[in-house]
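Handout, page 2. Input:
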Amino acid sequence: MRRKNGFQARVATLLVGVASLGGCSTEEEPTMPGGSIGNGGSSPHGSGGSGGAPGPVCDHQGDLDLSGTWLIKARLEVDLKSREGALVQVCPAQQTGVSELLLLGHFEQEGTELPKLGLTICDFSLPEVTAFVGQCTPGEVGPVRAQVTPSEALLAALPGLVISNGRGKLGGLENGASFEPERFTFALGTKSTTGTMASWKGGGTCDNPQNPMGTGEGCEQDCVTDCGDVLDSDGDKLPGVSMTVCGFSKDEAQGAKCSPEEPDQPGVTLQGKTGINFRVNPMLSGKAENSCLLRGGVDAKIEYNVLGANVRLTGGILTVKLVQEAIPLFDVVATNSQFVALRVDGKYGTPDLGLPADNPQMACQKAISNRNLL
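Output:
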């Protein structure tokens, strides 16, 4: 059967968005700082000449010097597809999302060695996805668009979450030398930086559609594989970290407001919050164009599990199992993923954002407000 009832059709939007932790597929690619960057005013887009609006000059002669503070944007392109036989189908059948990370880097350099690469996660973006229940007809677009975003609690907690310092190396000390950090791991809602994270096992009363479990605070011991692995990283009492879910149907009233904090109240077609664990392990690989600009490619694996959910679809609560099964399969497309990093500590004529080393929350606020530098 191609379609089911309207209630089920709108279920499709649920965590299709969660599954593709990334940016909207229509988002523009991050542009590099243009103009006169580097000794001799070369453009980051190529040797010599123009590269758009004038950018900061890197007033540095001699060996590369990467020690200092950097603003970094990593853009991961993700291909999405439905699980075989799944009730929920991505529609169109193949969609591309973009996962974007905004980071602050604190680097130390000793010759060609980078003994300390400290990173702070300031923000990440999620995609808008369309889907419905049943087989997707070629050329058709799902009836509901859903957006999943970090909750206010998670955004407030991100800067204080610890990422172990990494290491790296340079291929030389001249402009254009390779920049090769080790892979780093960014984990939320879990104690596991490697190995298996907790997941929803469900079954029995856990997935009773009339009275589903996992819709409130805390970890459901009988329904999650390992509550000992679950961390309330954002301190809002939901298992793992929380995301808000908003879905708008085509006939939704103009200006309709999503109410994820009170999903049982009037709002939009799909609204609520989910608790998940999340792990991404980006590997940056590129070049130090000079002592002020780094750029290159990104490869990563993204993993996550739904640990609880309080999400309403046209007023009816959804089971965590239904949320979990709505997640499609996806792959990071390394060939189309990239990063760019700009020095922002004022050295060599670069912007000085005045980022306080002892206040990561304030530093991230300034980073977010200056993300257009990238």
